[in-house]
Amino acid sequence: MRSTVDYQNILWEQQGGVAILTLNRPDALNALNSPHLTELNHAIERARYDDSVRCLVITGAGRGFCSGADVKEWGAGHVDDEPSASWIDLAHALISRIYRLPKPVIAAVNGVAVGAGCDMTLASDLRIASTKARFGQAYIRLGYCPDAGGSYLLPRLIGEARAMEMIYTGRIIEADEADRYGLLNRLVEPDDLMPTALELAERLAKGPTLAIGLAKENIRQNAQLSIEDALRNERRSGEICGKSEDAKEGLAATLERREANFKGR
């Protein structure tokens, strides 16, 4: 099944259980203005509540993934030297929705991903990047510190020392350096980016979505908890999984020595 939904600033396409969300302001390197953020928030909510969507891939049109805030709107929205509250609210909602989406999210990074664009990739579960991708926390270049999740997300992925250097200097790193830092799951040639992302997405979409979502929730929460509290979370999740159709199918498939046909419930 292949379906599309009309938006102004993004493209939404669905192939089976995989939804592909493409940021579609290529002339602006997919910079984020308020209408763009509004549509992105809507699309993430669609992915959350549409049971036919079992994995989400986020990528960018043109030569960039996302260059961060649209500084034309952002600058015009200053009140008492503060960025527009509506922009910040929308950006924070987007990062949180990606981070908490109870389904796997893959960022297929085709080009530059800086500022809030970089933070979108950090909030995703997995990052596959083209050799043309670049990453950076460029806020400092505008006299700002990260305000879309970078100070929370980046140290957890690459360590505090490297995150501090990127944030303090605003330096843009190339894809191979991002890979060495452990930021990426896979680094591929440009022509291989979407085939690689979709191959992984299709594999995840065929998995037990409920169990993957609970595993994601535990990974997000348990790093902040004691081992005892983490184990209690895993016990709760295991009990939920044990009552699911997928768990019954998984056990039956194992006993019958066949491939499981998970339904995501």
Description of the structure:
The protein has helices spanning 34-49, 71-76, 85-100, 116-123, 150-158, 160-169, 175-181, 193-205, 209-222, 227-242, 245-255, and strands at 2-5, 10-15, 18-23, 55-60, 64-66, 105-109, 112-114, 126-130, 134-136, 173-174, 186-188. With 265 residues, it is α/β, with parallel strands linked by helices. The chain has 2 domains: 2-205, 2-enoyl-CoA Hydratase, Chain A, domain 1, CATH 3.90.226.10; 209-255, Lyase 2-enoyl-coa Hydratase, Chain  A, domain 2 (Orthogonal Bundle). The strands form 2 sheets. It has a 7-stranded mixed β-sheet, sandwiched between helices. The model has no long low-confidence stretch (mean pLDDT 87).
Give short descriptive properties of this protein.
about 260 residues, alpha/beta, 2-enoyl-CoA Hydratase, Chain A, domain 1, Lyase 2-enoyl-coa Hydratase, Chain  A, domain 2, 2 domains, 11 strands, globular
Provide a concise account of the structure shown.
With 265 residues, the protein is of the alpha/beta class.
How do the helices and strands line up, and which of them pair or pack?
Layout: E1 2-5, E2 10-15, E3 18-23, H1 34-49, E4 55-60, E5 64-66, H2 71-76, H3 85-100, E6 105-109, E7 112-114, H4 116-123, E8 126-130, E9 134-136, H5 150-158, H6 160-169, E10 173-174, H7 175-181, E11 186-188, H8 193-205, H9 209-222, H10 227-242, H11 245-255
Parallel strand pairs: 3-4, 4-6, 5-7, 6-8, 7-9, 8-11
Antiparallel strand pairs: 1-2, 2-3, 9-10
